[in-house]
């Protein structure tokens, strides 16, 4: 097993779209186990392959008191309801933001035995699956923030990480762009001025990074 380096925002790989996995072979199984170990080592409850530098549709999740999940080619079939909840990300250490997520989802994925699995999820599991699948599409939770004011320093990261203002833009080749791609571009053309973010002790710290 190997602990893999986690890519940090604004690493451009976090903005790329991941490819479907055609063949679940020994190499990708070993990689998925390394992802699981990396996620546990980093004390996260979810990790997506692009966060460790590989653009394939693979996520790992482990919410407290549940077995770890390795999900190949996951997608959400159904979303129900909306709620505002705090969220963090292993690629954005030291910050938490309030985002809108579904109340419950159902998802489909391929497991390590190549079985097609249907899963219904609520609460933290539902949130983690939506967050990780976003990573596979180059979307970060920062894109779901309504405003900078909704992002807060958690104060759990040592001062050695120095944040600059970050302007970012994702360009999509519009020749083959689907309607969803164009909507995505609309979402992620955004400037985040991290230096304007103030600590806010009134916000409950997110206990989990995903
Ligand atoms: Co994340």
UniProtKB/TrEMBL annotation:
Record-linked Pfam families: Pep_deformylase
Single GO term (MF): peptide deformylase activity
CDD domains (alphabetical): Pep_deformylase (cd00487)
Coiled-coil stretches noted in the UniProt entry, renumbered to this chain: none
InterPro entries assigned to the protein according to its UniProt record, in alphabetical order: Peptide_deformylase, Peptide_deformylase_sf
Family indicated by similarity: Belongs to the polypeptide deformylase family.
Annotated protein name in UniProt: Peptide deformylase
Organism: marine metagenome
Biological classification of the source: unclassified sequences, metagenomes, ecological metagenomes
């Amino acid at each position: 097993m190997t602990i893999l380096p986690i890519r940090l925002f604004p690493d451009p790989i976090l903005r790329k779209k991941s490819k479907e996995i055609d063949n679940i072979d020994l190499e990708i199984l070993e990689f998925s186990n390394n992802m699981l170990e990396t996620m546990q080592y980093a004390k996260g409850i979810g990790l997506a392959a692009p966060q460790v530098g590989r653009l394939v549709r693979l996520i790992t999740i482990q919410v407290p008191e549940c077995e770890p999940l390795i999900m190949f080619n996951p997608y959400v079939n159904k979303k129900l309801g909306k709620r505002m909840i705090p969220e963090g990300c292993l690629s954005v250490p030291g910050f938490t933001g309030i985002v809108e997520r579904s109340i419950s989802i159902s998802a489909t994925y391929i497991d390590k035995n190549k079985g097609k699995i249907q899963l219904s999820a609520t609460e933290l599991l539902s949130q983690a699956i939506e967050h990780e699948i976003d990573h596979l599409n180059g979307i970060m939770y920062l894109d779901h923030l309504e405003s900078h004011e909704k992002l807060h320093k958690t104060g759990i990261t040592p001062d050695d990480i120095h944040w600059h203002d970050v302007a970012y833009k994702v360009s999509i080749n519009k020749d083959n762009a689907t309607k969803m791609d164009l909507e995505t571009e609309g979402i992620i053309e955004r400037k985040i001025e991290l230096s304007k973010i103030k600590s806010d002790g009134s916000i409950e710290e997110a206990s989990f990074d995903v």
